Amino acid sequence: MAAIDIPEVLKFIDATPPFSGLTAVQQKQLLAGVELTYARQGEKLNLEGEKATLHLIRRGACEIRSAQGALVDKLADGDCFGVASVLEQNPDGLQVVALEDSLIYRFKKSGFQTLIQESEDFAVFFTHTRSSRLRKLSRAHATDLATPALQLSTPIHQVMTQNLVTAHVDSTVQQAAAKMTESRVSSILVVEDKALVGIVTDRDLRSRVLAVGASADLPLSDIMTRDPAAMDSNSLVMHAQTLMSEKNIHHLPIIDTDKTPLGMVTAADLLRHQELSPLLLINQINRQNTVDGLKQACQQLPTLIVNLILTDMKTSDIGSVIAAISDSLTRRLIALGFDQFGRPPFSFQFLVFGSQARKDQSLGSDQDNGMMLSQEPNAEQATYFAKLATFVCEGLAACGVRTCPGDIMASNPKWRLSEAGWEAAFAKWVEASSPSSLLNASIFFDIRCVYGDDSGVARLIEGMQNRVAKTSLFLATLTRTGTVAKPPIGFFRNFLLESSGEHKHQLDLKHQGLALINDLARIYGLGCKRYRVGTKDRLEQAAREKLIGLDIARNLMDAWEELNELRLQAQRKHWQSSGEPSAYLDPSELSSLERKHLKQTFAMISEAQSAALQRFARGYA
Questions:
Q1: In this protein, which residues make up the domain named Cyclic nucleotide-binding (predicted)?
Q2: Distances in Å between the alpha carbon of 264 and those of 151, 155, 238, 334, 340?
Q3: What is the three-class DSSP state of 41?
Q4: Span between the terminal Cα atoms of the chain, in Å
């Protein structure tokens, strides 16, 4: 226990609400018997018996956790804890743990209780503090309740079937089919030297053997799917669901580091595991034969996203799950369009841009899409693709994916081009470097193919990267315009909040935070030799190619995760209260430690913008 410098304590509390509102006499009354304690990082602080009193953090950081271990609040310099212990004997069993080495003032219980009775403002402050933590505790309990229902963070080895059915690569089709029948399984793993080399499913036996009249004496190597998608046993259920959805597979082998099979997970296993899951929703989407059926199925999507947010799932994984669902919905609408309008006259690709391309969609994301046609259409062919594109875009809107305010959709003929047309558009945007070109670059250069052969898109991207590499003015201009918007921090490190309107005194986490990091990642990504579309992937690639310092890249990735988590939580809160997915945040709802971290995050983004200007725009006026 450290010695107390009373004048120093008075100076500190006189600048710290609510103590600053006390009279000089009341402040001295509170300080009678005050102690200064030291807590080491990780130490659990005792709030029982004589220790059940008001604590004030002088320097350091702590966190409050529920009796079950769920995070309730984070605290920093000037924050108090122990209120529930004094007023109500801590009925919720809250626990306080030091996040870092901390110095903490501990006041005598009697002095604090006297001031609660004497000063109404003092009492109201701590009543509000207690109410706020009860609300946060309620949200923490909601998280605990949501997790068993979804169990997306369950390790995959707890779900997989360990009774493996395997066959050697030289086994015959007849031998494998007999083994599958005997074991009552729908797939068999094909091994060579104990390592997984392939998989054969019931569907393979039907389509690759029976349907073509092939011999049952064929070796499995002739019909198996080689190097199948697989996952290690430390992965989570949510990763398995996302991979199976993206690959459209129903069997997922679980392997160790040397590719030795350890288990098998099927779509049925995951569906039994969860009542409402991404895989279940995707399967429901794929079974629908009408837009009305799809609309009905997609009514579950907001609830699913809210539940995902309530779990401990990483924000990047949530974005991947939503993208997998959006991709499946788009492909199903295309298939229903074929049913209505007939097969297309020639091949095409359906493209997505923006957040769906980057796989960072959230609640309320809108459409950004287009078509790449394999050749220039005649009038009749153009009419077909116009009908199909309109059907798909209107179907997406009916299912809750809002139309794009800027009309960047395949239903707009401007964004229904041949491969040569897209190449000409990309070339013009790179070479012109005009404001409109730069705006288009910020949208269309985040591109991904969700339907059709993506080789044309790969050629488009390769051509774009080559042009960017030869046109230094483009990256310089893109960097200057992409860093005009600054993080919302003022000269005195105060938040710059909305000054009027519906979101007065709030932060726009999307446009004032995440978009700034997305813009930086796009700039660095376009400067790379190898194209990546996701924001974190671009930063990692830029670090590998030495375009950006590893520390800046990591800081930006951490900032992206932090801001994305805040945005998703804000959207969840607004959605549950009003049905609107607002990404605005009132900073007063954060703890002082969270506000401190947010300010540091914005300051770091500002520094990264300066670094980008130095690298790409130096020498360009």
A1: 18-121
A2: 18, 13, 15, 32, 39
A3: coil
A4: 60
In the structure encoding, which two tokens stand for residue 312, read together?
């401990």
Q: What is the pLDDT of residue 148?
A: 38
- Amino acid identity of residue 235, one-letter, is S
What string of DSSP letters covers 501-519? Answer: STTTT-EETIIIIIHHHHH
Q: Cβ neighbours of residue 492 under 8 Å, at least 6 residues apart?
A: none
Across the chain, mean pLDDT equals: 86
Rounded to whole angstroms, the Cα distance separating 475 from 618 reads 11
**Amino acid present at 165:** V
Tokens 């501990």, located at residue:
106
Report the 10 Å Cβ neighbour count for 283.
17
pTM score: 0.63
Q: To 10 degrees, the CA torsion angle through 37, 39, 43, 46?
A: 10
Distance set, CA 429 to CA 374, 434, 547 (Å):
21, 8, 23
Give φ, ψ of 225 to 5 degrees.
Answer: -85, 115
Bridge partners of residue 59, in order along the sequence = 103
Question: How far is C-alpha 275 from the geometric centre of its chain's CA atoms?
Answer: 22
Cis amide prior to 18 (ω within 30 degrees): yes
Q: Would you say 145 and 137 are in contact if contact means Cβ atoms under 8 Å apart?
A: no
Residue 366 sits at φ, ψ, to 5 deg, of -105, 180
* 276 in Cβ contact with 150 (< 8 Å): yes
Could you tell me which residues come within 8 angstroms of residue 564 by beta carbon, excluding any fewer than 6 positions away? 315, 316, 319, 360, 362, 514
Element holding 103 (H helix, E strand): strand 102-106
Contacts of 383 (CB under 8 A, 6+ apart): none
Collapsing DSSP states into helix, strand and coil, what is residue 115? helix
Spacing of C-alpha 179 from chain mean position: 42
Q: Counting runs of H as helices and runs of E as strands, what totals does the chain give?
A: 23, 21
Q: Which two tokens stand for residue 464?
A: 């774009």
Beta-bridged to residue 62, according to DSSP, are 75, 98
Whether residue 386 is predicted with pLDDT greater than 80 in this model: the reply is: yes
User: Strands, E, within 436-560: which ranges?
Assistant: 447-451, 507-508
Residue 357 C-alpha from the chain's centroid:
13
Report how far residue 163's alpha carbon sits from residue 537's, in angstroms, rounded to the nearest whole number.
Answer: 37
Cα 434 to chain centroid, rounded:
32
CA–CA separation, 437 and 278 (whole Å) = 37
Q: pLDDT-based confidence at 314, cuts 50/70/90?
A: confident
DSSP state of 362: -
